[in-house]
Amino acid sequence: MPCSSTPLSAIVQGPHPIQEEKYRTASNGDEDQKYAIARHLPIQISLVLCVASRSSRASWFNLRRMKTDVIILGGGAAGLFCASVAAMRGRQVVVLERSEKVGKKILISGGGRCNFTNLHTRPDNFLTNNPNFTKSALARFTPQDFIALVKKHNIAFHEKKLGQLFCDGSSQEIVEMLLQECAAVTIKAHCEVKSIQKPNEFAVETNQGIFTAPSLVVATGGVSIPKMGATDFGYRVAKQFGLKIIPPKPALVPFTLAHEELQTFSELSGVSVDALVSFGKQKFRENILFTHRGLSGPAILQISSYWNAGQAVSINLLPDENLEEDLGSQSASNMNFSTWLGIHLPHRFAKAWAALYAADKPLRQFHAKELRRIAERLQHWQLTPSGTEGFAKAEVTSGGVDTHELSSKTMEAIKVPGLYFIGEVVDVTGHLGGFNFQWAWASGHAAGQVV
Ligand SMILES: Cc1cc2nc3c(=O)[nH]c(=O)nc-3n(C[C@H](O)[C@H](O)[C@H](O)COP(=O)(O)OP(=O)(O)OC[C@H]3O[C@@H](n4cnc5c(N)ncnc54)[C@H](O)[C@@H]3O)c2cc1C
Predict the structure, then answer these.
(1) Ligand 1 pocket by C-beta < 6 Å: which residues?
(2) How confident is the model at residue 41 (pLDDT cuts 50, 70, 90)?
């Protein structure tokens, strides 16, 4: 089936209109009439009316209670996918999205090409307090399952490296695919949730009315990139229902440097070096990239998810060399140290590193002990970041709803039947490379099969 564009207005009301019940409370005839008109207008116009008539909005919509089978909070990767799986089972689903459109993070992901999965997804590609938690969902919805869907929609893709699959075209294709899969789902954009109650079923009060359902799925993501609409809403819902939260931290985030190191390396902004970066037992071999504020690049982003503030990361700048032997054999050489280092590493970086950590003089003028120390430092460079660039630049949030509170099979809260948490709001954080989307699909699928 070719992948054509589906405007949001075409899918905001699915084929199963939500049942609406009128409250028999004090109502104003004019307001009812406005609402009746709005119901028959396209969503964009309804939204304008909503915004224009702020003061009367509450009284309009509070008059209506909309009953459905499943309410999903958040129209991101996990929410949309869960909605499509549940709708496929014939469930009547409504997605409530706070932003003006769904799937905004998908659109900016993978540099605009969405790294939508990773062929080598395994539970140890995820950080969580509860390492067994991801196993069931990942095994029941695999990268191959998502690839089958992508192929069904004729979306061309390629493996960039290390099992990372990207669209050949753009991330928009993945959003359009999800929207097509959600053809039977009602999606409410610009929908602000004001309160959630659970007298019996869940009752979600919003600026567009009160939605009630026996199942409530929280898919509001983490707090990274607030300017894309990220909020801590999911954590607040978890707290409201007495569930524990693992403190959220920026992850897959660039490091900042300070003092001499910042002065020296900020001048190298844009230079990258293949390195092995480690913190504790974790090691990542990929590029590190110097920025005007510190360090980024895939190896740094990966290690940042494990890093603890105030501690050093170790960088092996020449992981394939036997440096002690190599440098030792140069002990009679007239070559300057930075020139020798420039044979192995980018020249500008070699000069800056030499200026900071070793005298830039001919190699024959170093004592054998000094050369050994330099070799050791090049392969175990201890660098203590001053911090990270924080949630504003973090690709994801680590921490979130404690997985011990959830069923690993269904994502349902053990203490609160009918309440589900999926995607990044949960304390499951993937490595860089398509793993975070695979978790969004797998956890969304797990919940979508049972709600
Ligand atoms: C720049 C960038 C690039 C990335 N690239 C990749 C990549 O290539 N591959 C990969 O695997 N991962 C990537 N990620 C991570 C990936 O985008 C997320 O892990 C994934 O989107 C999480 O899905 P989610 O559905 O849980 O949350 P989100 O996709 O963040 O969706 C949450 C939704 O909930 C909505 N919402 C928030 N609060 C409320 C509320 N109160 N009421 C209603 N709705 C609300 C939000 O507006 C949003 O639409 C990237 C992230 C960023 C920031």
Answers:
(1) 73-79, 96-99, 102, 104-105, 108-110, 114-115, 193, 219-221, 224-225, 229, 231, 233, 395-396, 423-425, 434-437, 440
(2) very low
